Backbone:
């Protein structure tokens, strides 16, 4: 270590309050920046992986649009028309959700989904036992003496040790044509058990149970769908199939586009746009922190120049060059800023790991490895140091311009 470096770090140690203030501002800036960047990168990676996890060929339709509610309901019949008219589709599956109380499972609400067997192909479900064979189109008649076939997701059957062929008693409430509600006691027969599939954002693909849509429509008295899912034959067919679905449904809805059609590309674009808008706010916050940290160095160095004029005069009298004085103050600024950045990285990484391990929810998706944050975070740290260096140049230059006699007289 050179004498200049020893002198610079000696000043940092002696002026503990000022040095601690600068280091603390850098630690705070780095920790907050690390948390915000981790949240953006981690959540973007998570949601994009979830979208891609469904498969690259899926397309889905939901009632209503950004311009207003649905004027016409989606129906199973419309799904059949889509399957017939839209080319390059490999499967079409209508979905209707209905609450079903199953006393055998503690009386809780089981989310039962009415659909057909094509859903297994679209969502790439694999059967662990039994089969995913559900009766197809039409409003299927229901005979109270006949059990309703049930296919159960992994998240439901595994904790309750269900088995193929097991019977479950359940209650389902449906609306009559007059608008009143009626209750049906039904028997479900477990027909298939599904392997783990994961989740799609907030949708737990392992937490659903499936029954034939036609029977569910008969029981609930409703033919309106919650979703219509389809799968294109290949990734290159998705865009064309999406456009054809829009055209067919618009025609069926008398020219109204009162529905929303999405696919992986549109979902990924939506996620990236949402993250991008959030990132612009974060960038403003990070820029503010960067400037505040750099300004703290400017203030502390300016005070140091004022307080240490006699020392500067002595150094100049002993032969120190202007470049030596300037380098001395720049070394002090660099030492405080780099120390704050290093401590901030260590502390921020620890905070990220603790939040991800114990906080749950949103924090589960934080990226805890600073190296995995891409080039943005290192660039931001580089910008922080560069701006700090520029802010340090002013007081360092002022110190270097002091003459020995002038400095000693003013002390």
Residues:
């Amino acid at each position: 270590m050179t004498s200049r470096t020893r002198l610079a770090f000696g000043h940092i140690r002696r002026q503990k309050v000022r040095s601690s203030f600068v280091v603390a501002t850098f630690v705070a800036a780095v920790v907050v920046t690390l948390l915000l960047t981790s949240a953006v990168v981690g959540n973007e990676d998570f949601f994009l992986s979830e979208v891609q996890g469904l498969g690259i060929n899926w397309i889905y339709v939901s009632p209503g649009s950004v311009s207003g509610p649905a004027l016409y309901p989606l129906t199973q019949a419309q799904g059949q028309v889509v399957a017939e008219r839209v080319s390059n589709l490999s499967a079409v599956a209508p979905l209707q959700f209905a609450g079903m109380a199953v006393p055998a499972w503690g009386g809780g609400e089981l989310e039962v989904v009415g659909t057909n067997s094509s859903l297994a192909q679209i969502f790439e479900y694999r059967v662990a036992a039994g089969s995913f064979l559900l009766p197809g189109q039409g409003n299927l008649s229901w005979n109270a003496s006949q059990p309703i076939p049930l296919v159960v997701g992994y998240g439901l059957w595994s904790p309750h040790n269900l088995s193929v062929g097991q019977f479950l008693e359940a209650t389902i409430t449906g609306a009559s044509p007059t608008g009143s509600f009626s209750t049906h006691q039904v028997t479900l027969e477990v027909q298939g058990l599904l392997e783990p599939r994961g989740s799609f954002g907030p949708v737990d693909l392992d937490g659903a149970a499936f029954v034939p849509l036609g029977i569910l429509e008969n029981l609930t008295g409703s033919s309106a769908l919650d979703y219509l899912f389809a799968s294109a034959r290949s990734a290159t067919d998705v865009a064309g199939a999406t456009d054809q679905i829009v055209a067919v449904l618009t025609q069926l809805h008398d020219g109204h586009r009162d529905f929303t059609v999405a696919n992986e590309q549109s979902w990924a674009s939506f996620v990236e746009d949402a993250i991008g808008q959030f990132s612009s706010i974060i960038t403003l916050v990070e820029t503010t922190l960067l400037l505040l940290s750099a300004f703290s160095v400017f203030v502390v160095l300016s005070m140091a120049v004022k307080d240490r004029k006699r020392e500067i005069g002595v150094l100049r009298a002993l032969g120190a060059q202007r470049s030596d004085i300037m380098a001395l103050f720049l070394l002090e600024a660099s030492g405080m800023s780099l120390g704050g950045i290093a401590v901030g990285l260590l502390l921020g990484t620890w905070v990220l790991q603790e939040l991800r391990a114990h906080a749950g929810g949103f924090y589960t998706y934080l990226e805890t490895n600073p190296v995995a944050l891409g080039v943005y975070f290192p660039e931001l740290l580089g910008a922080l140091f560069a701006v700090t260096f520029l802010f340090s140049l002013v007081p360092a230059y002022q110190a270097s311009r002091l003459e020995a006699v002038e400095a000693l007289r003013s002390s």
Notes: Residues 217 and 223 are 6 Å apart (CA to CA).
